[in-house]
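Sequence, please.
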């Protein structure tokens, strides 16, 4: 079974955030598969696991 691979736009829609936020998360370690210089895909299961393991920030 092949896991669902998402574009940055699809992932942003799924997480209800902007594409800019997705790219910020990539810089902070969000796993991404670079297919070519301009083609990047995200594994939905790996992204879910990564998000679950991120430290939660408590509001003041």
């Amino acid at each position: 079974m092949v896991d669902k691979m998402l574009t940055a736009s699809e992932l942003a829609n799924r997480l209800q955030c902007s594409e800019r936020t997705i790219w910020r998360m990539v810089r902070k370690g969000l796993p991404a598969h670079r297919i070519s210089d301009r083609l990047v895909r995200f594994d939905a299961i790996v992204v879910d696991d990564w998000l679950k393991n991120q430290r939660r920030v408590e509001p003041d």
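The domain at 5-52 is CATH 1.10.10 (Arc Repressor Mutant, subunit A).
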